[in-house]
Specification:
- By secondary structure, the chain is an alpha/beta fold.
- The chain has three domains: about 170 residues, Periplasmic binding protein-like II (D-Maltodextrin-Binding Protein, domain 2, 3-Layer(aba) Sandwich); about 100 residues, Periplasmic binding protein-like II (D-Maltodextrin-Binding Protein, domain 2, 3-Layer(aba) Sandwich); about 180 residues, Orthogonal Bundle (Lysozyme), CATH 1.10.530.
- Helices cover about 45% and strands about 10% of the residues.
- The chain has 18 helices and 15 strands.
- Strands 1-5-2-6 form a four-stranded mixed sheet. Strands 12-9-13 form a three-stranded antiparallel sheet.
- Helix 10 packs across helix 11, helix 11 crosses helix 18 and helix 15 packs across helix 16.
- The radius of gyration is 26 Å and the shape is globular.
- The N terminus is likely disordered.
């Protein structure tokens, strides 16, 4: 069990020191205190209107599984889309988030039913009814079940093509339910379920040619394709599924489900949910199968030669090494002799003026190039207004690294003029491509720019950084038997 720090507000009940006060005055005091508490609650950031009344503990106990889109521990701390969602929910009800992990959905539901945890969050589909033992929150995401296979093998194109082939899925998941629906029309369809494994293990078996086909949700596929570049989607199977948090039907705290529903409804309406989805999934959309394969190959063949230098320089400049590695890969493919048609050169593809600014005398020297690129990137971050917070600060600085601070500022002005947030990458990345259109760039200070390029530049780096972070986690995991 892992304890994670979170904001915690303790409510203190009125002391009993006024026992001798007249009964009528006591009633007035109680009513006044409750009114003040209610008004205070409305002012709290993220607070839901319903707070669970079982305040015997100040903890929100959650069980999940380790994966890029649910939860994992990186060098920078806990990460994952569902973790971020849970952290905001815990903050909204003033509880400390306690995370427990498992590879088995059977164990996950067992702990939930035994009330060892308050809720389960692991990409759980609402079509997993479990005979009424489970109650689901409002859905927070939709996903499409996909049949996936290994590149080079026969590609199935419809459900009939699965008949007579090996289909394997993780036990106790929504994928068995999806296959069961198709068996009514295709009674010859067969599949095998494996207990106590996660998607990482099954995808590794697909990649290694040990399994022919499996089912994977589109959200999982987006984040896993960079780590398993030979695994490719074949066709969607059935209708989209909704993901939600699971609660025990026997819970002694039913108000927690009500609070969860209010929270999900709130963040959907105010745009927070959409921004979280973009933060954790948006970057993966830009990576195609060839790029994913090349990156995976270069992690093995090129990165080891430079990884110690990258880590040392990143530490000197207070940067995540995965970020510096991702920038240098996006710029040069970890090729210190790289050269563009415009004359930028080296591992970090520095121009001559930039190299001079950051005291780089030899752009082809990997250490000088990496150090110069790190210095320049930090300069760009420091030039952004203090109102820009992380992680947007990093992403906007990356855009400036590619397109220049002037063009980035133009895009921020356009964003603000359209009613968006100029400090948000989610909003600014929609304005950058407008710099290619005369009706927009003619009104800006710095004029035309190929605004699509910094968007792809940033999204690619974010994806590569995520893959490197997850790669480090996977290498620390014990091998599956």
């Amino acid at each position: 069990m892992l304890n994670h720090k979170g904001d915690k507000i303790t409510r203190r009940r009125t002391d009993q020191q006024f026992k001798k006060i007249q009964f009528g005055l006591a009633i007035i005091l109680v009513i006044t205190a409750l009114t003040l508490l209610a008004n205070s609650s409305k002012k709290k950031n993220w607070q839901t209107d319903i707070t669970p009344n079982k305040d015997l503990t100040n903890e929100l106990r959650v069980i999940t599984r380790i994966s890029p889109n649910t939860y994992f521990e990186s060098d920078e701390g806990p990460s994952g889309f569902e973790y971020a969602l849970l952290a905001k929910f815990a903050e909204s009800i003033h509880k400390k988030l306690i995370i427990t992990t498992t590879d088995s959905n059977a164990e996950l539901f067992a702990q939930l039913n035994n009330q060892e945890v308050d809720l389960a969050s692991a990409g759980l589909s609402t079509n997993q009814t479990l005979s009424g033992q489970i109650l689901y929150s409002e859905p927070y995401m939709e996903s499409q079940p996909l049949v996936v296979y290994r590149v080079g093998n026969q590609k199935p194109r419809k459900a009939n093509d699965l008949i007579g082939h090996e289909v394997v899925v993780a036990a106790d998941t929504n994928h068995s339910a999806s296959l069961e629906k198709f068996r009514s029309k295709h009674p010859e369809l067969q599949w095998r379920e494996i207990n106590n494994v996660d998607y990482m293990d099954i995808l590794a078996r697909i990649q290694n040619n040990e399994i022919e086909y499996t089912l994977l949700d589109s959200t999982d596929f987006l984040l896993h394709q960079g780590f398993f570049p030979r695994v490719k989607k074949a066709f969607p199977l059935g209708e989209k599924v909704s993901f939600a948090w699971a609660f025990s039907n026997n819970s002694t705290n039913p108000e927690l489900l009500l609070a969860a529903n209010q929270f999900i409804s709130k963040i959907r309406q105010d745009g927070t949910l959409a921004k979280l989805e973009e933060q954790y999934y948006g970057q993966a959309v830009h990576i195609n199968q060839v790029d994913a394969y090349e990156f995976a190959k270069n992690i093995t063949h090129k990165l080891p030669k430079y990884i110690n230098t990258i880590k040392n320089i990143a530490e000197q400049h207070n940067l995540d090494w995965e970020l510096l590695a991702a920038i240098s890969y996006q710029e040069s493919g970890w090729n210190p002799l790289a050269k563009s048609r415009t004359g930028v050169r080296g591992m970090m593809m520095l121009t001559l003026p930039t190299a001079k600014e950051v005291n780089v005398t030899n752009r082809l020297d990997p250490e000088q190039s990496l150090n110069g690129g790190a210095v320049y990137f930090n300069k760009l971050k420091n030039r952004l207004p203090s109102s820009v917070n992380e992680p947007d600060r990093t992403w906007l600085a990356l855009a400036a690294y590619n397109v220049g601070m002037g063009h980035l500022e133009d895009a921020r002005v356009i964003t603000e003029g359209k009613g968006g947030d100029p400090n948000s990458w989610y909003d600014v990345k929609q304005s950058l491509p407008l710099l290619t259109q005369r009706k927009w760039y003619s009104k800006t200070r710095y004029g035309y720019a190929r605004g699509y390029e910094p968007v792809h530049f940033v999204q690619n780096i974010r994806h590569y950084q995520n893959i490197l972070s997850w790669d480090a986690v996977v290498k620390q995991r014990p091998a599956q038997k």
